[in-house]
Amino acid sequence: MTILQFPKDFKWGTATAAYQIEGAYNKDGRGMSIWDTFARIPGKVFEGDNGDVACDSYHRYEEDIELMKQLGIKVYRFSVSWPRIFPNGTGEVNPKGLEYYHNFVDKLLENGIEPYCTLYHWDLPQALQDQGGWENRDTIDAFVNFAETMFKEFAGKIKNWMTFNEMWCSAFLSNYYGNHAPGKRDIQIAVDVAHHLLVAHGKTVSKYRELGAEGQIGYAPNVTWNEPYSNKQEDIDTADRGRAWYVEWFMDPVFKGSYPQFMVDWFEKKGVKMNVQPGDMEAIHQPIDFLGINYYTGGVVKYKENSDILDNEGINVGRDKTDIGWDIYPEGLYYVLKFITDRYGQVPIYITENGACYNDEPKDGIVNDEGRTSFLKKHITQLHRCIESGVNVKGYMCWSMMDNFEWAYGYSMRFGLVHVNYRTQERTPKESYYWYQKLIKNNYHEV
Predict the structure, then answer these.
(1) Which of 4, 238, 350, 436 has a beta carbon 3.0–4.6 Å from 312's, enabling a disulfide?
(2) Is the pTM of this model over 0.70?
């Protein structure tokens, strides 16, 4: 047995998102979001599920924070529901929304848990979508206004901010594949949305600096790692495009001030034009304090003409999969973090999401989710390998604290360390919860 010791100041935590856990969709003045709308369109979400109630954390947050305290986490990443603060996206602030988050953050701090706040985890106010959503550049200003309100309101309480969660999903999964709200299928719209999200990120970082706020700010892209199926150049090239679509497309503008030229050329070849206005790249290219990384899976890809926008297809090479069907590829975490460090330097990195879907149910009050524990062990080993290799990893936040509304999958997929009975709202810590509790307490990992 080998003991893998983590740094003394390493921050262990968990993560969730507002729409996935809060519920109370029409309580205390909250406006409608694009996910409220999308989930009501027949066929968009598994079995017509929605986030109206979810885990009812809006009313049960004290119970949930008690579970966090028992787990021993030092940090908790959550998101703020924009339509809870600005029911119409702009205009009048909803005081009840602010009150809820003040009570919530105060309770975290009382229990020694440091809040890491994501400003945007996909729940755009429907009122803004009605005006074009992220296709409309006015939404950039609306977001900066929302962010400024939060920065001022929670000054001194929240010292760790992320602008956006998984821009790739908000842009491409939502507007090219159409699997997420608002459900469009247009690559030009998706590329425009991606750019507007990046501009909004940069302008928000600038606003944060302008306010002289105490703390740090970053963002949380999702990444993957693609291996080429063969050493043929066309396979190598398509694997590079697959990685760049997630990594370089959303990181080069922030860290280097430009989009990766080979991807710009590729999109142009596919008929997509870049609608970049003067000053946009300078706006995006703002120094950030840390980089959040969401990693779940990777794969092997092969060139296939016109199979999708990148001309690649995934090849099943027999890796084990989680219950959602994603390949288990822990080494990919090491490879992608090394790549990011080599390309962008020693930026402080937090793993802001990493976890697995296993749909184990309680038996005699015990949820024996061996698959999840095994997944976490393997990925945390690779995380330690990253640190030993000089990657500046500062913390790890397991996805997710509890089972929740899994977007288009509804309630059919469970990622939580805590099982939620959606009928009774009973919470049951799983065996993975107790394994993670021991890891946090010891600050080392046995392999």
Answers:
(1) 238
(2) yes
